[in-house]
Every structure is written in structure tokens, then in C-alpha cells.
Amino acid sequence: MAIQVVGAQEVQTDSNLIHSNGRVPPAVVAVRTRDDIRIDGVLDEPVWSLATPATEFRRDEPSDGKPATESTTVYLAFDDNALYVGARLYASDTAQISRRLDRRDSFATSNDRFFVILDAHHDHRTSFAFGVTPAGERSDATTSNDTRMGVDPTWNPVWETETTIDSLGWIAEMRIPFSQIRFSTSGEQVWG
User: Fold this and answer.
1) pTM above 0.70?
2) Nearest to 17 by CA among 128, 144, 126, 123
3) Beta-bridge mates of residue 141
4) Band of pLDDT at residue 141, cut at 50, 70 and 90
5) What does the alpha-carbon distance between residue 156 and residue 166 come to, in Å, rounded to a whole number?
6) CA 11 to CA 142: how far, in whole Å?
7) DSSP string for 162-182
């Protein structure tokens, strides 16, 4: 999924968004907000209703590239200081949502987990991963060269996240300060 931080402008598909496999990932435009977003695991701020939802997610594991078995809707917003992520993760059987709390950066595969991985230069060289479980366990890492072999979980940025579990599944809300990641200084940003 390509993240295009360009305010409310129309987004054009351009050749630098095409992956090596020939696919063009769906684009998500982050909407600018001047209102405060309270990170509480509830998507009740007006900006979330203004943001265009991202919904076309595919599985990575198992069966790389197949449609996801459960629906997920993600919204992006930003202000002068941070990127905000709001995610509604649906679950057909909410009793199956893992509520186990592990240590930070445990990356336990037995837990449900939502990740945002930002390639802020869109060069497939370095990315910043931010993850959370329904119980609120945080994970963060840097990765290199688009591989799992280059994961560095010792990176511990300062960021916020909260989650809630409800009758539809669970919600994750994140605030990722721009000071914690490297990116270009151009006025229009295209991130992977």
C-alpha cells in the first residue's frame, strides 16, 4: 500500500509506484488535520470521517498475496508534527481475538497484530515498522532492503498507540511523530 501524503489533492498513479512484480498497490491519501486527535482507540474524531478509507488488503502470511480473510479499514491523517493511523480490524468471531499481552517488541506470532510499515523515501531500502496487538502490546523496528532478514527490533522510537476491542473486532489508533522517522523535505510526499 503506497501512502501519499499530499493533503487533499488528486493522486495520479506514477511509474515509481509500480512494484517489481508489476503490481501497482492501492494509494491512500493522508488528510491534513488542524484538529487534535486523542489517541484512545476510538475513531470518533471528525477527521476519520473525512479520510478516504483503505480497504484492499492482502495476506502476507499465509498464502502471500491472497485476499485477507477478515476486513480491515485504515485511515490516515497528518498535522505539522505527526502521522495518525486509525484502523478498524473486523473479526467474524470476536472471541478469537487474542488478548494476551507480551513484552514490547516480542513479535509473538500467536497474537493478532496490526502493523504499519513506512518506506518514507519509497526506495525499498529502509522502512520503519510500528505494530500493536489488541491488548496494546507495541512493537517497532527498522527494516532494510524490503526483507525480514534486515529487521532491527532494537530501534525504540517514541510514539503513541491505543486499542479497544468491541463487538465488531478491534480498533487501533496511532500517533507517529515525524521526528522519529527520516523522510524527504519536499512539499509533496509519496511513501511506500
Assistant:
1) yes
2) 123
3) 129
4) confident
5) 29
6) 27
7) EEEEETTEEEEEEEEEGGGS-
